User: What shape does this take?
Amino acid sequence: MKPIQIADGVYDVGVIDWNIRDFHGYSTYRGSTYNAFLIIDEKIALIDTVKAPFADQLISNISQIIDPAKIDVVISNHTEMDHSGSLPKLMQVVGANKPLYCSKMGAKNLAAHFPDAWDYHPVKDGEELSLGKRTLAFIETRMIHWPDSMFTYLKEDHILFSSDGFGQHYAGCEEFDDQAGEEAMVQAKKYYANILLLYAPRILKLIEKVVASGIQIDTICPDHGIVWRKEPGKIIDAYLRWSRQETEEKAVVVYDTMWKSTETMAYAIADGIAATGVMVKPIHIRSSHRSEIMTDVLDAAAVVVGSPTLNNQMFPTVADVLTYMKGLKPIGRIGGVFGSYGWSGEAVKLVAAELEAMNFQMIDGGPRLLYVPGEEGIAACKAYGKQIGEAVKARQG
Ligand code: FEO
Assistant: This one.
């Protein structure tokens, strides 16, 4: 299915990973792609490679356009091995003496991954490289998604090669946003929520700087998923919104349950929230992957977490989600807690401490009910849900 022409002399020679379902803890139920880009000019450049098991496929894809030995310049926008894993095999074919352009941190990080003595050319932010008729400009983008990350901009064609930025874990026959439809944005949101959210302040500054510079961006070529050629502005606007952590009039009620008591409470709280007109989604942790939960947290104004007490602790799956969420640093959310217990009942307090550690604006009085919720308990849950819904409306309004 690849290579695919992006523009005159510009090709995606990457690969499709149809069957990957877990990407270091992120559920990739739509698979993924590792895109790599070949630019044919007086000098021939390759931007990024693919995961190591796909190295032969990458070389075969390049060979359909040119002899890989004719590549003059290799550019590594990002060291993570889904983009650098094929470098050893590729450099053998291209020629180990060919220049390898990357950021300063990229040179350091690549050397920490691969023992090969490649001819590193570390570049600075704004540095340019002429390919003959066309010019590449390098833009430092630290922490999108590693300290070594950079973008490469093809000036004459207004194409931004954005590495992990603006990407999605999405495997399809489609190459472009106008072919993939809304699913591209669905997967881009999930990608941002699970890979980039913790760097939101940095991403916001970077995008604002790029927008302010006035550079024309007609096409965005990420290293994962589809290429944005129809509406690159749509994904840039979404990144600005997500990086500002803008939320909607929406709450999530995330819970686990042992004997359905905490689940009964979750639904009663959700009913209370819904009664205020706020959108609400109850999410049973063992029915939804943590990366799906995080995608819903991205635009939720309130995050309400319920846990039964097990062995004096919060339920282990709840701890998993909270640890994951804390690392991704959602900020400014309204927080709520609840849970059923049998005798000791520490979970609610422990969960509240985790949400407080994330600086959530906590709604006090989260219900903590003994064994099975009765009428009074259900009413307390509904009332708590209403309080949360009203807090969401006050904040969003
Ligand atoms: Fe797609 Fe940070 O690697």
